[in-house]
Specification:
D-amino Acid Aminotransferase, Chain A, domain 1; binds adenosine monophosphate; OB fold (Dihydrolipoamide Acetyltransferase, E2P); 3 domains; DNA ligase i, domain 1; 536 residues; single chain; alpha+beta; 5-stranded mixed beta sheet
């Protein structure tokens, strides 16, 4: 970082984090895997077969491209075009790719890609491809970048962290540190409309564990099953950001107007959950919200068809005052002063397990996911998943399902069949229905062992996918069963993860698709079913 020329510092920070632009910047590259792979094939003059072979070996397109170009270079003893690629070349190309939209954009993007990848050497190609596809996966994250800036320019780590949190732009932080030193970082101010990373919750096993962890007294809130939003309001302007920090204002026009009209503050940064609600006001399963979200570009009839409601739960800034360092209890108090007609998530403060239990049951009874416990004295720690917020959800009974196919993974997992298709047996006919797919839950050892077992059961191959005889039973946990057009049976497990491999269990003893349907139906005893569900 110290050796990087001043003019490149910002860009180097973004690129090392695997991004073309700063995090708050809404521009996107919109380049698909298909475009990048066709450019690679064209430049290296290789066919599909060679690319797939390299992909199977390396597990990702960046590494595959590197390998292909390295081999070609060895043979030709020269790179394809003899010109050094600079950081500003890359920055300019990325900007022009983002600007290309509409008719003919794909072809023009391809041309820019050809020119930039054509100038790169194999190492550079590897990382450019990863950045283009948003798949850096180096494990180098913002936290480490903050440490790097602190060390490179001798600025206290806390000062770097705070400047980064407030400005939302590590590139600017690094540039300031390099050009003007520590004092300039202390002066960096909060910028509206650049989202702050959300504070996250850890899993808890029980209410008594929660009370103990929080020193005998805690705040419990309903855990609503919707979409986390961070809302910035500055005078008449309101923007809504998702948990992944993208601007989703246009998906939720009525949330925007509710905040504009209802909030009793000129400036605020708020957090809350947007949930889909049925006609009687009770929560709808999460998938309805996602549907609405995806259909944003379609006629606004869909928007009206699935009503949503905002519930607030935190306040990070109000009328010029930053509350991030204030304890939860105070933030919540300030929120209660300004929320106006916008509902706040239901909350209790308790020292009593029985009281906590009845609150948890009430949450489930009303169709929510569970509760989140918040340490009364805790400050807001952006991006941290710690014990100050603990979540407890209702657990659905595990299902014993059968693996009917599996795919070789990516990166570290590319040698293993690590993504599994989980199927439920039909209790009446002799066949299996896929109800989910997961790569979660198993250790490396288990995956490697399972790969051997599944390879022996292989019946058909389709690229990186192997179809297998339905022999291996796994116990699967999940959060919800939802309707899905993805699978033939019309149902899919949400957040499926394997809890155990049941080598001891016969596939004929596994759970049936009829059982999956029953559990699906049972969910509606608490959640309301959308009346026109069948339209979707
Ligand atoms: P999880 O997604 O299971 O890690 O749980 C954390 C998420 O729960 C947050 O990101 C929010 O979207 C959501 N959530 C629902 N209700 C609350 C609440 N009262 N406080 C904080 N987060 C909540």
């Amino acid at each position: 970082m110290r050796d990087v020329p001043k003019r490149d510092v910002k860009q180097v920070v973004y690129l090392l984090l695997g991004r073309p632009f700063p995090r708050w910047d809404e521009r996107t590259l919109d380049v698909s895997w298909a475009i990048v792979s066709s450019v690679i094939k064209k430049l290296a003059r290789v066919d599909d077969h060679t690319l797939i072979e390299a992909l199977n070996k390396t597990g990702d397109l960046g590494a595959a491209a590197e390998e292909i170009f390295r081999e070609r270079k060895l043979k030709k003893q020269a790179s394809l075009i003899d010109k050094e690629l600079t950081i500003s070349d890359v920055a300019r190309s990325l900007e022009s790719i983002a600007e290309l939209v509409g008719e003919g954009a794909r072809e023009r993007k391809e041309r820019v890609l050809e020119s930039i990848l054509g100038q790169a050497d194999p190492d550079e190609i590897k990382y450019l491809v990863k950045i283009l596809l948003g798949e850096m996966r180096t494990g180098f994250n913002e936290g480490l970048m903050e440490l790097a800036i602190s060390r490179a320019f001798g600025v206290d780590t806390e000062v770097v962290r705070r400047a980064s949190m407030l400005s939302g732009d590590l590139g600017e932080v690094a540039e300031n540190a390099k050009l003007h030193g520590s004092e300039s970082l202390r002066k960096m101010k909060f910028r509206f409309f650049r989202p702050i990373r959300p504070m996250l919750a850890q899993n808890a096993e029980s209410l008594s564990e929660i009370l103990e962890t929080h020193g005998g007294r805690t705040a419990l809130e309903f855990k609503l099953d919707g979409m986390r939003v961070q809302i910035h309001k500055l005078d008449d302007k309101v923007r809504i950001f998702s948990r992944r920090l993208t601007d989703v204002t246009s998906s939720f026009p009525e949330v925007e107007s509710t905040v504009k009209k209802g909030l009793q503050a000129r400036e605020a940064v708020l957090e809350g959950e947007v949930i889909a609600v049925g006609e009687d006001g009770s929560p709808l399963p999460f998938q309805y919200l996602m549907r609405r979200f995806r259909r944003i570009r379609e006629a606004d009839a869909t928007l009206r068809a699935i009503p949503v409601k905002l519930f607030l739960f935190d306040l990070l800034l109000v009328d010029g005052e930053i509350l991030i360092d204030s304890p939860y209890i105070e933030r919540r108090e300030r929120l209660s002063e300004i929320h106006g007609e916008i509902p706040v998530v239901e909350q209790i403060i308790t020292e009593d397990v029985e009281h906590a239990k009845s609150f948890f049951e009430k949450a489930i009874e009303q169709g929510h996911e569970g509760i989140i416990a918040k340490n009364l004295n805790s400050t807001y720690t952006p991006g941290v998943r710690g014990k100050n917020w603990l979540k407890l959800k209702e657990v659905l009974e595990p299902l014993d399902l059968v693996i009917v196919a599996a795919e070789y993974g990516h990166g570290r997992r590319h040698k293993w069949l690590s993504d599994y298709y989980l199927a439920a047996r039909d209790g009446e006919e002799d066949r299996f229905y896929v109800v989910g797919k997961t790569f979660k839950g198993l250790t490396d050892e288990e995956m490697s062992e399972l790969t051997e077992t599944l390879e022996k059961l292989a019946v058909r191959r389709e690229g990186r996918r192997v179809h297998v005889k339905p022999e291996v039973v796994v116990e699967v946990l999940y959060n919800e069963i939802q309707r899905s057009p993805k699978y033939e049976c019309g149902l899919a497990l949400r957040f499926a993860r394997i809890s155990r491999i049941r080598y001891d269990k016969d596939p004929r003893e596994s759970d049936t698709i009829q059982r999956v349907r029953e559990i699906y139906e049972k969910q509606f005893e608490k959640k309301s079913r959308y009346r026109v569900e069948d339209r979707f």
